[in-house]
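tool_call: predict_structure(chain=1)
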Amino acid sequence: MTFDPHAVTFGLDTFGDVTVDLEGSAVPPAQVIRDVIAQGELADRVGIDHFSIGEHHRPDFAVSAPDTVLAGLATRTKQITLGTAVIVLSSDDPIRVIERFSTLDALSNGRAELTVGRGSFTESFPLFGFAMQDYETLFEEKLDLLSEALRQEPITWSGSIRPPLTQQSVHPRMERALPTWVAVGGSPNSVVRAARHRLPLMLAIIGGPAHRFAPYVNLFHEATEKLGNDRLPVGVHSPGHIAADDRTARDQLAPHWIHNRNQIGRERGWGPSGIAEFESETQHGALYAGGVETVATKIADTIRTLGVDRFDLKYSNGPMPHEQLMESIELYGTKVIPRVRELLAEAQVPQSSVFDEA
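tool_result:
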């Protein structure tokens, strides 16, 4: 099968990072949420395919209810898909998730989508009364129940995490099948789980070279085929920032990326990061930072190497000012994506050879 560059789609992801203004003063979370709306509106105007918002419950991220923010965007955008990056399904109720997103799909005239995951941040577990020792069971059973609800048929289900359901219906009924992805950070078991539930795979590649994830792409397609299902899409989510040239982009991003990396690192026991790690990730890893040609070339290489169907740029990385984020969004939509399509068209790599050689 010939690789079709026009079939690849491109998205933007944000966690609603609490930002600073151009003078370095902290921006209130309420204003950050209003700025996310403006960022989504711009993404729609410049022709980006997807806009996704993550869920967090901590002071450095402003968005704890992404579906509410997406509902606001549904009334102020026209074309762009509105989704999540991610909903932490383990600490949510799958039935309520379906109800909220069927409502969002109605508001947006069929532009809602859902990406679920276990969540690399776990603040929602104690907040909503879930035990960390149930981490695996919660996600496995809730994903199973979500998959049942997505069929839009009366649900009969039983498990260990909640009382059983017998012929229960979910409302409002959706007008179409809700596109639903499973986000995976690098666990083979999680890859196979997504294939077993017949859901597309979103790979969170946030460090190291993208080609390391080729075995996971192969595993997903092999598992899907062995289960007797049709080929399912695979996407990539990675961080980055675009500016007028490489040096400007990296100078703008570096202090915020390092700040974010060290803040999370202190919580998780990582060693301190600095400019050397930032430059290494930019040059050889999963950080797509630079001018238009640099970022476009790196994205095209990732798409060709992994044979993926979608690339989402996580454009918010620490407390970077809103104005710089807006410039990055505009360049991504108007310059980078068209250039990536040109580069992909020049290569025309057969997808089968990508999977055979990886």
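agent: Confidence is low (pLDDT under 50) at residues 351-358. Proceeding to next step.
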